């Protein structure tokens, strides 16, 4: 059976070699998938009328999920999946109501989604990171970038400086280290609209849970943030990294003063060094059923992460260390 997995994984990688800009290298320390004997589920609420396991979720994960499902079927021929992937926002309700075995998502549950899930199930879902976000402009999910206008002399920021700016405590570029004529210039704050997944992530990962200053100008899409920043040399903004334009640049970030700032590169993302990295996620309902646990074992294996690396959107595989942290949640 293991030979089948290796042969299928290789065939998928060859068939998609030219689909994206390139495929990221997969950590050789990731363990190979060793399939366990698994009984075909019977009468689960998430099964379709013809017996397939329904999965409702993120449309931009289709390519990797199709490959992972095919790899799973190679060693569990009695088990089939039915992928219904209209978008992230459909996943939480389907999982809560037992209509989906898994919830593949491009962002974390929002507070309203989590409240609805808890009201239905009485518990919290279990979150699994399954891939890093992408720097490819064709992807829908990217890491969060902190942008300035191309003419801005600021070279880097710490998360503490970022927090001071976005909570209104730093209002001039001199407060963030700019010198000369720039020191007295006001900071014009831009970002994605409050309450959106990107803004919620910024608050959690960038601002330590604090609220945005009232003066921040929010836009619905990252592309709109960057476009407006292009016309404002005094802008400081956050948006999805792959929506960049030549008129702006993403700042290297340090978690705290005295640490080396990390540029927004694939190498730093995959090594866990970039502070505002984001992930593709799969949420599941506890307790995990055998088929859900086994499928996640495959996703977090070398073969499963090779399917991530082959995605035409350029999503990045987990490291062996990261995958081990996620696999521990299966026990």
TrEMBL record:
Keywords (alphabetical) are:
Signal
Where do the coiled-coil regions begin and end?
none
Q: Which Gene3D superfamilies match?
A: Periplasmic binding protein-like II
Q: Which organism is it from?
A: Polaromonas jejuensis
Query: Which Pfam families is this protein grouped with?
Result: PBP_like_2
What protein name does the entry list?
PstS family phosphate ABC transporter substrate-binding protein
> Where in the numbering of this chain does the PBP domain appear?
137-303
Recorded hits in SUPFAM superfamilies, A to Z, give: Periplasmic binding protein-like II
Endpoints of the signal sequence: 1-23
Which InterPro entries does the record associate with it? PBP_domain, Phosphate_ABC_transporter
Which PANTHER family does the UniProt entry name for this protein?
PERIPLASMIC PHOSPHATE BINDING COMPONENT OF PHOSPHATE ABC TRANSPORTER, PHOSPHATE-BINDING PROTEIN PSTS
């Amino acid at each position: 059976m293991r030979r089948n997995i290796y042969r299928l994984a290789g065939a998928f990688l060859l068939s998609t070699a030219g689909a994206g800009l390139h495929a990221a290298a997969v950590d050789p320390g990731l363990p190979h998938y060793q399939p366990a004997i698994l009984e075909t589920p019977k009468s689960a609420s998430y099964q379709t009328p013809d017996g397939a396991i329904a999965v409702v979720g993120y449309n931009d994960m289709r390519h990797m999920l199709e490959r992972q499902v095919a790899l799973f079927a190679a060693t569990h021929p009695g088990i089939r999946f039915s992928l219904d992937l209209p978008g992230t926002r459909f996943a939480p309700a389907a999982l809560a109501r037992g209509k989906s075995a898994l919830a593949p998502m491009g962002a974390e549950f929002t507070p309203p989604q989590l409240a609805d899930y808890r009201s239905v199930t009485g518990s919290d879902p279990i979150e699994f990171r399954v891939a890093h976000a992408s720097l490819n402009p064709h992807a829908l999910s990217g890491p969060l970038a902190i942008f300035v206008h191309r003419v801005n002399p600021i070279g880097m920021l710490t998360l503490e400086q970022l927090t001071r700016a976005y909570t209104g405590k730093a209002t001039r570029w001199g407060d963030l280290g700019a010198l000369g004529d720039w020191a007295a210039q006001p900071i014009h704050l831009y970002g994605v609209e409050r309450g959106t997944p990107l803004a919620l992530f910024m608050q959690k990962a960038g601002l330590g849970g604090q609220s945005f200053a009232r003066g921040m100008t929010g836009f619905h899409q990252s592309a709109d943030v960057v476009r407006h920043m292009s016309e404002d040399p005094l802008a400081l903004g956050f948006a999805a990294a792959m929506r960049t334009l030549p008129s702006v640049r993403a700042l290297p970030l340090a978690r705290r003063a005295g640490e080396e700032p990390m540029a927004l590169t694939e190498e730093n993302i995959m090594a866990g060094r970039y502070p505002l990295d984001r992930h593709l996620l799969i949420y599941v309902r506890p307790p995990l059923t055998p088929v859900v646990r086994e499928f996640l074992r495959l996703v977090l294996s070398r073969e499963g992460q090779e399917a991530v690396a082959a995605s035409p959107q350029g999503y990045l595989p987990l490291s062996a260390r990261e995958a081990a942290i996620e696999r521990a949640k299966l026990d």
